Amino acid sequence: MTYSELLKFDSFEDRLNALILNDYEYNSPRSEIQTFFKTYQWKKLREKIIKRDLGYDLGIFGVSIHGKIIVHHIDPVTIDDIRKRAGKLTDPDNLITVSLNTHNIIHYGKPLEILEERKPGDTILW
């Protein structure tokens, strides 16, 4: 799946379903990619992708992202991709803006747990 192909889906749900990593054996190289995410090259590209997608979740007009905007790699990045600086790390056709909840659904099949708002007296044990 690429960004260009994803644009053929009009609805948020269709785009999300196309990206969910069902039964995909994926081992996140999170610690290895953090250095790359701090580079000038990534920061400029991230800014470009956010502008392209207007900061909307999955690039769907009107689906605003509240909080941090994540620039997601559509084709998951491996440790080998990072070490070799594979083209898909910086290919705009492999990147899309998503919210944290959408990112978690793509990777783990479910959103973050919704925390209930605290209320006075909610810690009373009797």
Question: Tags for this entry?
Answer:
126 residues; mainly alpha; two-stranded antiparallel sheet
Structural class: mainly alpha
DSSP strand content: 5-15%
| Number of strand elements | 2
Written as H for each helix and E for each strand, in order along the chain, the element string is HHHHEHEH
Cα shape? globular
The number of distinct helices, counting runs of at least 4 residues, comes to: 6
**Main sheet?**
2 strands, antiparallel
Rg calculated over all Cα atoms:
17 Å
> Could you tell me the mean pLDDT?
86
Widest β-sheet, arrangement of strands? 1-2
For this structure, the quaternary state is: single chain
Helix content: 25-40%
| CA-CA gap between termini | 54 Å
Low-confidence stretches: none
Overall structural domain count: 1
Description:
This protein has one domain (about 5-110). By secondary structure, the chain is mainly α. It has a two-stranded antiparallel ribbon with strand order 1-2. The termini are far apart. It is built from 6 helices and 2 strands; from the N terminus they run ααααβαβα. The model has no long low-confidence stretch (mean pLDDT about 85).
Briefly characterize the structure.
By secondary structure, the protein is mainly α. It is built from six helices and two strands; from the N terminus they run ααααβαβα. The longest helix has 13 residues, at 40-52.
Fold topology:
Elements (H helix, E strand, L loop, with lengths): L2 H4 L5 H8 L10 H8 L2 H13 L17 E4 L5 H6 L10 E4 L1 H9 L18
Antiparallel strand pairs: 1-2
